[in-house]
Amino acid sequence: MSTSNITSSNTTSAMTGQGRVVILGAGESGVGAAKLAQAKGFEVFVSDYGVIADKYKAALEKLGVPFESEKHSEELILSATEVIKSPGIPPTAPIVKKLVAKGIPVISEIEFAKRYTAAKTICITGSNGKSTTSLLTYHILKNAGLNVGLAGNIGQSFAAQVATDQYDYYVLEISSFMLDDMFEFKADIAVLLNITPDHLDRYDYKLENYAASKMRIIQNQTANDVFIYCADDEESLKAMAIAKPLAKTYPFSIVKPVETGAYLEETTIHILTEPTNQLTMSISDLALQGKHNVYNSMASGIVAKVLELRNESIRESMGNFKNIEHRLEHVAKISGIDFINDSKATNVNSTWYALESMTSDVVLIMGGVDKGNDYSMLKDLVRSKVKAIVCLGKDNKRIHDAFEEDVEVIVNTFSADEAAQIAFHLAKRGDTVLLSPACASFDLFKNYEDRGNQFKAAVREL
């Protein structure tokens, strides 16, 4: 039976009559928001319906911010003047519904933090590639000598950084869940990489609702701001036709030239924000390989050109960037078999990108919590590249149904150890064992990082 507690240090939050801020969720964003709200003189209370991790509990105790764990006390929450909600809490949560019914504003940490910084924001969203593109953009800007922070769906909390640092720029990875709770926020430079079905359970299983959420990245932008988008992505173009961006737009494409933006001509990328100032670079010199990463590199390159960074500096950074953990991460080569950890691929489109970049026969490890996945887009790639599928999840029926006619071998496993061992036996010299699940991880693992780490540990035991 779970226990609940309310904890308060002897130190009380500074009161300046600005009101009472309640924060729902005591993870990275919630604790960061508490830090900033306290620094700005609000009365602060943090409530988490789950168990608060020890490091966040210690941080709140150090701040002297009262908090509760494993429950939501309505009398303490519904007395708020404003609520900052963790992106993971759905709008259908009972406490959120009660807040909305009472007319209490519910916002995101990103919305709250932006009020207290004059820094320029480069905001990157998309169903796939946003972590890689955010990290690459940050890498380019930092290497060029800009005073830049990295936050949002990645790294340290935006609010915590605003409370303690004085950056001139922030690169923010923004999820649709964050965008749903952003209202007055404005991105100085907004990037939309793509729109493919993801998290549809939060959007009434309607792609148009999810697309509308993604387009909130351009809300409040004016003609003085910048919007960068993929001209090859049909859903993005559809959503743009409805949202009608006011900002200066820069498209990127690998299939057709563009006047300003970025495009691919044979094996050369052209990036230009004006016809007379162009950066060119061979795709073979990019640190990130694969078609999807050409798109990611183009988007980052346009940001860099908009900020008028030197071509030499941009080229150098795009050539020496190291990709993030759990995204097409090479783990080991054992008996001539490559093992790749792509645990961050939690949707079908991410797995499509991973398979598309493979140049050898693949033993594919996939499965987990199916978010209403449509596997049909994978069928051609599975037929041409995948020799066996190793399912890693509690319920693998939909994967069997989707691919039983496309591959000869589909095996069920229920741990990372078992999946790695069976995949190793199914592969031969020259093959690749690819963990690219296309599903969330919560049936067997804490999160996709835990899944990836367990897989890497299992590979190293082979």
From TrEMBL:
Any one GO cellular component localisation term in the record: cytoplasm
Domain Mur ligase central: 124-303
Highest taxon in the source lineage: Bacteria
Positions contributing to ATP binding: 126-132
Keyword set includes Glycoprotein: no
Pfam families: Mur_ligase_C, Mur_ligase_M, MurD-like_N
Functional pathway: Cell wall biogenesis; peptidoglycan biosynthesis
Main location: cytoplasm
Any single biological process term in GO: regulation of cell shape
Entry annotated with the keyword Nucleus: no
Gene3D superfamilies to which the protein is assigned, alphabetical: Mur ligase, C-terminal domain, Mur-like, catalytic domain, NAD(P)-binding Rossmann-like Domain
EC primary class: ligase
Subcellular location, record wording: Cytoplasm
InterPro entries: Mur-like_cat_sf, Mur_ligase_C, Mur_ligase_C_dom_sf, Mur_ligase_cen, MurD
Segments forming a coiled coil: none
Reaction catalysis annotation: UDP-N-acetyl-alpha-D-muramoyl-L-alanine + D-glutamate + ATP = UDP-N-acetyl-alpha-D-muramoyl-L-alanyl-D-glutamate + ADP + phosphate + H(+)
EC number, UniProt record: 6.3.2.9
Keywords, in A-Z order: ATP-binding, Cell cycle, Cell division, Cell shape, Cell wall biogenesis/degradation, Cytoplasm, Ligase, Nucleotide-binding, Peptidoglycan synthesis
Entry GO MF terms: ATP binding; UDP-N-acetylmuramoylalanine-D-glutamate ligase activity
Family named by the database record: Belongs to the MurCDEF family.
Function: Cell wall formation. Catalyzes the addition of glutamate to the nucleotide precursor UDP-N-acetylmuramoyl-L-alanine (UMA).
The protein's name: UDP-N-acetylmuramoylalanine--D-glutamate ligase
Lineage: Bacteria, Pseudomonadati, Bacteroidota, Sphingobacteriia, Sphingobacteriales
